[in-house]
Predict the structure of Carboxylate--amine ligase.
Amino acid sequence: MIPAVVLGIDTPIGLTIVRDLGMRGVAVHGIAWSKNAIGLASRYLHRGLLRAKGDAALIEQLIALSGELGTSCLFAIAENDIALLNLHRERLPRYRMMFADAARMNRVVNKEQTYAAAARAGLHVPQTRQVSSMAQAEAAGRELRFPVVLKWSNPHEVMRRLSAAGLPLAKAHYCQTPPALLDYLQPYEAAGMYPLIQEYCAGYGLGQFILMKDGQAHYVFQHQRLHEWPPEGGFSSLCVSLAPYRHRELMQQSIALLRELEWEGIAMVEYRHDPATGESALMEVNGRFWGSLPLAWHAGASFPWLAYQLFGMNRAQTLPPYRTGIRCRFMAPETKRLVRVLFQPHRIADRNLTIKRLPTLFGYLTDFLRPRTRYFVFCWHDPAPFFKDLRGIRRN
């Protein structure tokens, strides 16, 4: 087997890739932002390196590493790093890339292109407006149902311009009324750019994970977000693996969407599913390893290993069906969520969301006793990253 290089072992995502490959005998070389990175403590890491400072220095670091290792697989976690590496693909010929090329990444990062492909695949997309003036925003406020959620069509494209203008880049912002929408958007008028305005979708987060190659789905997995941080919607703090028979038709539509996008590699297709109506609304496509990857791994859906085999070794790998009903907790944000629900409910932006305090506290405590509960960081056969994470939390 050829070695693997994982750029970004500071998070549970990178740590899970290290564990999945290292347990199977792959020599994993991990690159971390900081010496405090949890991935550096894993027993399954062959060698840990600190990331060179600056984009140019990082590329030179990777070139030097490839000269030492020869042919190897390169995993990257963050979208910014994927964009940087795609710019320099021709300078990294010895690496077999475990992420999509720039053209495909741009399609999924740009929500307008994704939503257009979703319409062709027969998926439901919430009513969305991209405005270019306050007058258009005012008109959207009359046409859309409230509350609405504001998000950027292409966050990476606007990040620097927003920073230069002193404006925040919020992943999602809720507005309850048309006046609140106009008040929030007013500062963006000077910058001449505005986020997407999207109708609120009730329900829970549903993620469908797919490994695509040559238009075929080689492995699929799905989960439900039980808790999110922040509570009104964000990333998973508690999630559970769902049986394949659930949302089967939707999974076929997700695969059709990725075919429309000519996708190659791993992707998460994210929905908001309303159990009251049975309707699922597409939120976005993440064309990278996702935050809840630890759940998939604990359930037996070893996406890093499958990608390594398929795109690194050019051979398909067969895995047994994953386990359903596995719950996975990201303890730091799960604890922050508990504090928000118990003591700061007024700070929950989604006014339609009702969370009862005592059942929340009871569920937080009893999850420690559930035999099917797993954790984003803690793992009994690789405990050192957990203790390193605890030390980092205390420092912060």
